[in-house]
């Protein structure tokens, strides 16, 4: 079948013969996978290789902003791959310039650096902080970056060090020096750390936080904490860095996560949802801390025409289709319904929290059930969910999710919970 014919009729793509044993023989054993193989998708729906349908409230882990096979995104990437997909940053890339301009015009940032993933965007931010500390901030020799406990910043060596969760660091020591951890939403801890770490040529140069902790259990930042934090950073010449890899690009009902907190970061990063599932990462910063010069940092694939065209389309579609409004309405609908479930099963759940279309539902710590038990039961019902730690269910559907789809997800979740209870 020609590509054009396939585009017009995606259901004509044959289900592949999937062999799980063979997969496990050849692919490195780095993921605990659910026992289904996804073959295709459309909107918020996915089909596995057996032809079974699922409602997707994972969205590639908060990544498929426009869902699957969105016609506008399909058209953009199809046209772009026919025209030009990669040339390297040895040359000017018009699509990269256009995307950077859009981001700068729609955020607090003045400049953008492009790469391919969240971890890489955070690595770029860490390098920028260090160069700023060495060259501008009192020629600091030992700059410290404070990050939060239960944070998540990626899987490279520097970003697992930045990640305040020992389980990601275990067996990969020695870690990268220059990171210290504080509890999230705790101002006193920040103040103490800044004082304690100030000696000789060593001091806190930056504080790097998620506006809402995603992997760490869907924990929103507190407005008061962030307002005070901004003040402390200004008074002490400390850079405020936000990891917006999961919460940026409309996920929270605002374009950027920091808009929920009433503060602007000096540096922030984006990746997951930025190109709707095409790999891209970005690090944004204000002019005053833009100390990179040619040769300081680079990425072969970073900002290539294909990824940038896709990202520009995602951002323009969010604007054109008024998706932020949908995110707010569907998020409220979802959380109201999740709260009803919490009230129905008060022994099972303790809390529902989140912003826009990133919501978490916490299981009671005193019962032996884990988030994985519920997620597995939900998948049996045809609803895809992702855990955020052992006790939190995470709901991150595509930003295009409809009212009826949210209702449907709630129905399936209730059935799944009832099944789990019946089994225990
Ligand atoms: C997913 C995530 C990352 C890592 O992104 P990768 O693209 O997997 O490298 C970093 N920070 C946050 C907040 C994330 O959610």
From TrEMBL:
What else is on record for this protein? Answer: May also have succinyldiaminopimelate aminotransferase activity, thus carrying out the corresponding step in lysine biosynthesis.
Which keywords does this Swiss-Prot/TrEMBL entry list? Answer: Amino-acid biosynthesis, Aminotransferase, Arginine biosynthesis, Cytoplasm, Pyridoxal phosphate, Transferase
Co-factor binding comment: Binds 1 pyridoxal phosphate per subunit.
Tell me the route in metabolism or biology where this protein functions.
Amino-acid biosynthesis; L-arginine biosynthesis; N(2)-acetyl-L-ornithine from L-glutamate: step 4/4
Q: Which CDD domains match?
A: OAT_like
Is Zinc tagged as a keyword? no
Q: Which cofactors are reported in the record for this sequence?
A: pyridoxal 5'-phosphate
Family to which this protein belongs: Belongs to the class-III pyridoxal-phosphate-dependent aminotransferase family. ArgD subfamily.
Q: Which GO terms describe its biological process?
A: L-arginine biosynthetic process
The entry's protein name is: Acetylornithine aminotransferase
Q: Which organism is it from?
A: Hydrococcus rivularis NIES-593
N6-(pyridoxal phosphate)lysine: which positions carry it?
272
State one molecular function term (GO).
Answer: N2-acetyl-L-ornithine:2-oxoglutarate 5-aminotransferase activity
Q: What is its EC number?
A: 2.6.1.11
Q: Which HAMAP family match?
A: ArgD_aminotrans_3
Write out the GO cellular component annotations.
cytoplasm
């Amino acid at each position: 079948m020609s590509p054009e014919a396939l585009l017009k009729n995606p259901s004509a793509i044959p289900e592949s013969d999937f062999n799980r044993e063979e997969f496990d023989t050849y692919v490195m054993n780095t993921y605990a996978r659910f026992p289904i193989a996804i073959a295709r998708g459309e909107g918020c729906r996915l089909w596995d290789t057996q032809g079974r349908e699922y409602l997707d409230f994972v969205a590639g882990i908060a990544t498929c902003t426009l869902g699957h096979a969105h016609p506008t995104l399909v058209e953009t990437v199809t046209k772009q791959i026919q025209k030009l997909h990669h040339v390297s940053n040895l040359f000017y890339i018009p699509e990269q310039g256009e995307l950077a301009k859009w981001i700068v015009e729609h955020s607090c940032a003045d400049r953008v650096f492009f790469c391919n993933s969240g971890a890489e965007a955070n690595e770029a931010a860490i390098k920028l902080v260090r160069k700023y500390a060495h060259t501008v901030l009192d020629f600091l020799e030992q700059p410290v970056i404070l990050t939060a406990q239960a944070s998540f910043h990626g899987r490279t060596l520097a970003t697992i060090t930045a990640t305040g969760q020992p389980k990601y660091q275990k067996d990969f020591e020695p870690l990268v020096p220059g990171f210290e951890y504080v509890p999230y939403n705790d101002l006193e801890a920040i103040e103490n750390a800044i004082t304690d770490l100030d000696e000789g040529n060593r001091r806190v140069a930056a504080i790097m936080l998620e506006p809402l902790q995603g992997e760490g259990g869907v924990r929103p930042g507190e407005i008061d904490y962030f307002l005070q934090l901004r003040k402390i950073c200004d008074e002490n010449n400390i850079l405020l860095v936000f990891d917006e890899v999961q919460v940026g690009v409309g996920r929270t009902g605002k374009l950027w996560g920091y808009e929920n907190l009433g503060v602007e970061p000096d540096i922030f990063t984006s990746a997951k949802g930025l190109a709707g599932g095409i790999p891209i990462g970005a690090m944004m910063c204000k002019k005053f801390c833009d100390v990179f010069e040619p040769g300081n940092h680079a990425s072969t694939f970073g900002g290539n025409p294909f990824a940038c065209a896709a990202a520009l389309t995602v951002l323009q579609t969010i604007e054109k289709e008024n998706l932020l409004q949908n995110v707010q309405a569907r998020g409220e609908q979802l959380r109201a319904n999740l709260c009803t479930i919490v009230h129905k099963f008060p022994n099972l759940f303790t809390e529902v929290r989140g912003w826009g279309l990133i919501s978490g539902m916490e299981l009671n710590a005193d019962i032996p059930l884990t988030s994985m038990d519920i997620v597995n039961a939900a998948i049996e019902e045809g609803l895809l969910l992702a855990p955020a730690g052992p006790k939190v269910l995470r709901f991150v559907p595509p930003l295009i999710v409809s009212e009826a789809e949210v209702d449907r997800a709630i129905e399936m979740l209730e059935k799944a919970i009832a099944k789990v209870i019946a089994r225990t």
